Amino acid sequence: MDKFLQAAYEEAQQGLSEGGIPIGSVVVHKGKIIGRGHNKRVQLGSVVLHAEMDALESAKRQPARVYRECVLYTTLSPCPMCTGAVLLYGIPKVVIGENKNFAGEIDLLKSRGVEVELVNDESCIQLMADFIKAKPELWNEDIGE
Fold first, then answer.
1. Using CA atoms, how far apart are residues 54 and 18, in angstroms rounded to an integer?
2. What is the mean pLDDT of each run of 10 residues along the chain (145 residues)?
3. Can you give the pLDDT at residue 15?
4. What are the b/e assignments for 106-128, b being 16+ CB within 10 Å?
5. Are 124 and 118 in contact (CB under 8 A)?
6. Which residue numbers are catalytic?
């Protein structure tokens, strides 16, 4: 696992330790993390703070040119909302830790010209699978079945 996906994975673990859903994300600009986050739906009672949205929020306002030079790393394939944010801000590349537990919107990203790198890292897969098995009602509340 490369260092940026590792940072996203650490965010996912932090979310889990807070009683939340273990999905993490980082926004990288020219080799430097400018935003990091994890799913905070449970912790904050939020309907929009998925990991990718939290990472973008922590990157703060950036000029459009900065987003067009970023890579978004996420431990789980992005949902329609997070995919929309990638498209809205013109982020050209997304690195996805896994899509086995949730397929997400990889095809939409690719159809809009976003470079997608799917890693299918065993640590990311296992973290999410263990969570879904342990707390299916929480998973299904949002983007599960």
1. 15
2. 96 97 98 98 94 97 96 97 97 98 96 98 98 92 66
3. 97
4. bebbeeeebebeebebebbbebb
5. no
6. 52
* pLDDT in the model for residue 142: 74
H-state helical runs in 80-121: 80-89, 106-111
Cα distance between residue 138 and residue 20, in whole Å:
9
Q: What is the pLDDT of residue 96?
A: 98
Asked if 12 contacts 79 with a C-beta cutoff of 8 angstroms, the reply is: no
Q: What angle do CA 109, 93, 59 make, to 5 degrees?
A: 110
CB 93 within 8 A of CB 114: yes
- How far apart (Å, rounded) are the C-alpha atoms in residues 112 and 86? 10
CB 41 within 8 A of CB 20: yes
Hey, which bits of 60-114 come out as E strands?
Answer: 70-74, 93-96
d(CA 126, CA 140): 18
CB–CB of 97/67 below 8 Å? no
| pLDDT for position 131 | 96
3-class secondary structure, 35: strand
Q: Indicate the helix (H) or strand (E) that contains 99.
A: none
